[in-house]
């Protein structure tokens, strides 16, 4: 290899580079290209200068023959190159650069519309084409109406015949006007031309070359791939040999291995798809060869985690994954080192790029806030020299690439997905398809795997078989990928999993759209298979509506015998929950609650679907919530038998909700903890045990606790696999709620003690909260107060399904407090809900209310359009206030399982307080309707109120609510105020069991207050009667992607479709106000705060997460 001067002056043109290498590497190989599969021809620095000079001379002569209107002249003139990336293609590009002309690389795989768009938008009038592309360009010239000239690309033989020619005038480009143009892949529409400054890219190539080994390199990338271009520039700048594979032959593992051996290359530049080929070579030969290289550089797309782990961690391959964009150049480099190879898929910003990179948080949580995480959308800010494109008003470029922050919080990032890859289900859940596609795609029998399901109730996947699977049946291919699908399902939230019968198998050889990087063009792929996808969902819908197992019982696999139905139910549920794979989970008892075993809504839907296929229901169907309502083998079997017999449902099975509630109370009201032999004095500073810390209320509670100087530690039980992930979830929740910036000091975060713990998986007998004994012992010995704010917010589930997931953990927390060795046992503040007392009014409540303090009737200030219970004109004084006390079952008898479960938990707290052995200081805090915080107005856009308001943008109208009082009164309490009140009540200096209401005294009226405040904040809409608004929503665009309010159409029909709405009950807050100063006088949900809500919503809707 030739030597370079110690300090070369940077070149600003390729002409300068080629002239310099003709001197420094006159006899050293710079380019190698195959003459056949195993023999490569070498070209030195002198050869390259001569060939490009000859080509430039011949092209200049050809251009001189063109009409003056199309003749290229100088950097402002663009010449397009179309063809395969052969040596002639490379020589032509370099020759055009030596003529001082701008070169535009065009992939030969574009459609005519794409060709025409690029040529027209760049005002390109000359095309140099090779092979079949020459005829393609002639067709474009004839059909586009553009003034184009097509020139055949020079062959290598026509250049080697010339022995000498005149020297070319030097191209210095002092104004940095010389460019090359690359285009985007056209994955979402027409390809986009991206002009790149020659000087900037050469400077960047020199910097990147300094950070990489200077060794002979072989590349499989075409020159019209931006990293293929970058590789050429890097090798020319640092004077290292670049070998290319034949453009006329397909890229196979064999061709790569042969090329590596023939050229003695010590580095490989390729795409992840080729790495997969090499990893599949028999006997591990491909992986062994990769491990021998000094560097393997992957570009074009992310390397799947499993493949990268196998190469890097498993085999010691030195994988280098540089993150960059055609529009912005190289931005980040790998974090891995020889000492930490496991960081191969994490990157950190390059020093020159770091000041211009902004990571904007994007929530991928479901509408319930469960199962998601905060990802970060990368935006490149103005000022970066290599950035040549902007798509934001401030000059920034939104990459649409989503990253995950490293759990340590360090400046390390992992690419997760494209923003436009995220699939939004019909219920608003956001699913990342990449882990599933990577898992199935790595199977050797799979050519492509693409997830579908936008605006559907569940995901599916199209699998295109690889050539090696040509002789396999669909069933055999499905069986082949099932282990991979299971692994993929383990990497995504429950709602994003794909069932085995949701695979659409396409045979080997099926064509599909992909880029030159072998990356599937998702939008076009899904469009190509749209018919099969629609048919898949239509068949599911037919089954769901009773069109599956027929009335004659003759269909294959249909169960028509009552005696077999119980076994079928058990088998179906066991399979869906994959109990056989879990330790001790092979058996499923008749009375085991499905949801206590971890069943989610998608699995419940799948169980219903499978039963509809297999059980002969005589043409009848099953309710959508059948599994929620009958969540055990015993209950579901009984219901199926009733449906088969044509009988009405028998009231929910052998036990009514009230009977079940009483049984649960009996089960969880026993506290047999023995007194600790020796007690420990309470510590000077408090240690808090907090559950639900990543929820909207819980994170504000945590933010309120952190600055408190009397608190030493806050133990946060967080659903996560490990401590680092638990802390990452907490930090992400703080960031999303905009709470990190308002902390008095970042050092306060050190008070957080993250404890990975899945409370929802506990059973009544689960000792120690499922924690390791040492961890539990430390928490139990130090905890002085418990704030229990975690609960499953699922209004579909019946009471029995809250047993293991919510009631058992509550009992475990009460037992922890009861068994505490501290002199003063921990206070337990249970965050309940007004849903546990919504129907508690009536004569009994009136009697209690009449004996309460007169403070209950004292007027509280009202916000614009609002009032309080003393206002004789609003109707509230006519309704009895619900007292701060426990209430009989009638308060929740007609409600949902959610409110009933809170009712049971309240009485568990009372039992713990009354128990002689427990003696727990328990407090019940019934929290009402929460809204966004007062500082920033952060209010989850997936909730009903923000979704309603969004209709002003999509439908142009908002509903005027009608009820018996003429307007709807809203007791919205800002979440930060609620959090302060919870903390105040948890720390209240009082003893004994208490029940407190946490609501807002200052009401806002929907019609007279909220709607005018929205208008004042700048929202334009027509106010129409509620039922008319529902009709308009029904007639509006039904694509939930473009019109999100239609996702809640059924909810809106129930809420607004009837004549009038039920008024909000009045909750007495006499006692709560005594101990919670934050509740006194209420908080105005006024025009200023509504404006904050609206600004936050608009930003979310118009930002990357809302599009």
From TrEMBL:
Residue numbers spanned by region Disordered: 852-878
Carrier domain boundaries: 563-644
GO molecular function, one term: phosphopantetheine binding
Keyword annotations from UniProtKB, A to Z: Phosphopantetheine, Phosphoprotein
InterPro entries: ACP-like_sf, Adenylate-forming_Reductase, AMP-binding_CS, AMP-dep_synth/lig_dom, ANL_N_sf, FAR_NAD-bd, NAD(P)-bd_dom_sf, PKS_PP-bd
Compositional bias (Low complexity): 852-867
Keyword match Nucleotide-binding: no
A matching Pfam family: PP-binding
PANTHER family: ENZYME, PUTATIVE (JCVI)-RELATED, PHENYLACETATE-COENZYME A LIGASE
Name under which the protein is recorded: 3-methylorcinaldehyde synthase tropA
Originating species: Lasiodiplodia theobromae
Lineage: Eukaryota, Fungi, Dikarya, Ascomycota, Pezizomycotina
Gene name in the database record: tropA
């Amino acid at each position: 290899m030739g030597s370079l001067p110690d300090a070369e002056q940077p070149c600003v043109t390729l002409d300068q580079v080629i002239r310099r290498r003709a001197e420094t590497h006159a006899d050293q190989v710079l380019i190698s290209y195959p003459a056949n599969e195993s023999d490569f021809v070498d070209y030195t620095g002198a050869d390259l200068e001569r060939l490009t000079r000859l080509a430039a001379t011949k092209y200049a002569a050809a251009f001189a023959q063109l009409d003056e209107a199309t003749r290229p002249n100088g950097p402002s003139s663009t010449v397009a190159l179309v063809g395969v990336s052969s040596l002639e293609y490379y020589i032509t590009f370099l020759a055009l650069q030596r003529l001082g002309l701008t070169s535009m690389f065009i992939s030969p795989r574009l459609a005519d519309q794409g060709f025409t768009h690029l040529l027209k938008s760049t005002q390109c009038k000359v095309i140099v084409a090779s092979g079949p592309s020459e005829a393609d360009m002639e067709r474009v010239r004839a059909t586009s109406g553009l003034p184009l000239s097509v020139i055949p690309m020079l062959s290598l033989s026509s250049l080697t015949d010339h022995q000498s020619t005149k020297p070319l005038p030097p191209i210095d480009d002092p104004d940095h006007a010389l460019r090359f143009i690359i285009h985007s892949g056209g994955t979402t529409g027409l390809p986009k031309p991206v002009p790149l400054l020659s000087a900037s890219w050469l400077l960047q190539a020199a910097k990147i070359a300094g950070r990489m080994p200077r060794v002979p390199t072989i590349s499989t990338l075409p020159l019209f791939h931006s990293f293929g271009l970058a590789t050429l520039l890097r090798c020319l700048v640092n004077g290292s040999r670049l070998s290319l594979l034949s453009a006329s032959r397909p890229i196979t593992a064999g061709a790569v291995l042969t090329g590596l051996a023939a050229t003695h290359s010590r580095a490989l530049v390729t795409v992840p798809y080729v790495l997969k080929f090499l990893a599949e070579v028999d006997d591990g030969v491909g992986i062994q060869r990769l491990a021998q290289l000094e560097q393997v550089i992957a570009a074009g797309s992310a390397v799947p985690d499993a493949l990268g782990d196998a190469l890097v961690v498993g085999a010691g391959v030195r994988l280098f994954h540089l993150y960059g964009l055609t529009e912005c150049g190289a931005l980040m480099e790998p974090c891995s080192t020889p000492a930490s190879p496991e960081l191969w898929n994490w990157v950190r910003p390059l020093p020159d790029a770091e000041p211009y990179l902004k990571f904007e948080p994007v929530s991928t949580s479901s509408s319930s806030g469960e199962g998601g995480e905060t990802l970060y959308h990368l935006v490149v800010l103005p000022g970066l020299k290599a950035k040549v494109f902007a798509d934001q008003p401030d000059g920034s470029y939104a990459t649409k690439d989503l990253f995950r922050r490293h759990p340590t919080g360090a400046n390390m990032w992992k690419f997760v997905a494209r923003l436009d890859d995220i699939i939004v289900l019909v219920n608003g859940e956001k699913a990342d398809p990449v882990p599933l596609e990577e898992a199935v795609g790595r199977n050797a029998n799979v050519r492509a795997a693409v997830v579908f399901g936008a605006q559907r109730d569940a995901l599916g996947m199209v699998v295109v078989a690889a050539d090696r699977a040509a002789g396999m049946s669909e069933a055999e291919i499905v069986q082949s990928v099932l282990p991979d699908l299971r692994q993929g399902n383990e990497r995504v939230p429950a709602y994003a999993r794909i069932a085995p019968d949701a695979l659409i198998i396409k045979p080997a050889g099926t064509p599909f759209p992909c880029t030159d990087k072998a990356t599937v063009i998702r939008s076009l792929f899904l469009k190509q298979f749209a018919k099969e996808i629609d048919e898949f969902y239509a068949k599911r819908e037919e089954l769901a509506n009773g069109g599956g197992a027929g009335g004659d019982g003759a269909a294959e696999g249909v169960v028509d015998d009552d005696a077999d139905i119980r076994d079928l139910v058990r088998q179906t549920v066991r399979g869906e929950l994959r109990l056989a794979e879990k330790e001790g989970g092979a058996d499923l008892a008749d009375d085991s609650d499905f949801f206590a075993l971890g069943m989610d809504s998608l699995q419940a839907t799948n169980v219903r679907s499978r039963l509809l296929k297999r059980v002969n229901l005589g043409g009848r169907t099953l309710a959508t919530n059948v599994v929620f309502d009958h969540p055990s083998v015993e209950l579901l079997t009984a219901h199926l038998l009733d449906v088969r017999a044509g009988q009405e449902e028998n009231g929910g099975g052998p036990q009514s909700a009230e009977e079940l509630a009483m049984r649960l109370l009996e089960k969880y009201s026993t506290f047999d903890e023995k007194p600790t032999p020796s007690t420990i004095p309470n510590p000077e500073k408090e240690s808090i045990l907090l559950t639900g810390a990543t929820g909207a209320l819980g994170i504000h509670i945590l933010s309120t606790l952190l600055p408190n100087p009397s608190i030493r530690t806050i133990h946060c039980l967080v659903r996560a696999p490990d401590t680092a992930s638990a802390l990452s979830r907490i930090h992400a929740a703080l960031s999303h709620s905009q709470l990190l910036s308002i902390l008095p000091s970042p050092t306060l975060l050190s008070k957080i003690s993250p404890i990975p713990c899945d409370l929802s998986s506990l059973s009544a007998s689960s000792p120690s909260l499922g924690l390791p004994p040492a961890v539990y012992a430390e928490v139990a010995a130090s905890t002085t107060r418990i704030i229990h704010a975690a609960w499953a917010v699922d209004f579909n589930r019946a009471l029995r399904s809250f047993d293991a997931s919510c009631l058992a953990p509550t009992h475990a927390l009460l037992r922890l407090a009861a068994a505490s060795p501290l002199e003063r046992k921990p206070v337990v503040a249970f965050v309940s809900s007004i849903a546990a007392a919504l129907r508690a009014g009536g004569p009994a409540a009136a009697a209690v209310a009449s004996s309460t303090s007169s403070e209950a009737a004292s007027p509280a200030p009202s916000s614009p359009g609002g009032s309080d219970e003393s206002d004789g004109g609003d109707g509230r004084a006519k309704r009895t206030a619900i007292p701060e006390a426990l209430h009989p079952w009638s308060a929740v008898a007609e409600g949902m399982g959610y409110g009933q479960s809170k009712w049971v938990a309240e009485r568990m707290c009372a039992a713990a307080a009354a128990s002689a052995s427990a003696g727990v200081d328990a407090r019940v805090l019934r929290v009402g309707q929460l809204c966004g915080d007062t500082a920033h107005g952060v209010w989850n856009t997936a909730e009903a109120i923000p979704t309603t308001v969004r209709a002003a943008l999509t439908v142009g109208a908002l509903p005027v609510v009608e009820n018996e009082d003429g307007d709807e009164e809203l007791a919205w309490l800002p979440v930060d105020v609620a959090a302060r009140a919870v903390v105040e009540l948890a720390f209240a200096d009082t003893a004994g069991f208490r029940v407190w209401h946490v609501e807002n005294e200052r009401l806002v009226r929907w019609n007279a207050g909220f709607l005018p405040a929205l208008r004042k904040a700048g929202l334009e809409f027509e106010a129409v009667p509620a039922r008319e608004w529902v009709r308009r929503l029904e007639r509006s665009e039904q694509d939930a992607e473009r019109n999100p309010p239609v996702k809640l159409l059924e909810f809106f029909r129930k809420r607004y479709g009837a004549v009038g709405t039920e008024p909000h009950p009045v909750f007495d807050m006499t006692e709560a106000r005594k101990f919670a100063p934050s509740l006194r006088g209420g908080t105005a949900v006024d025009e200023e705060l509504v404006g904050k809500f609206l600004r936050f919503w608009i930003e979310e809707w118009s930002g990357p997460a809302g599009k």
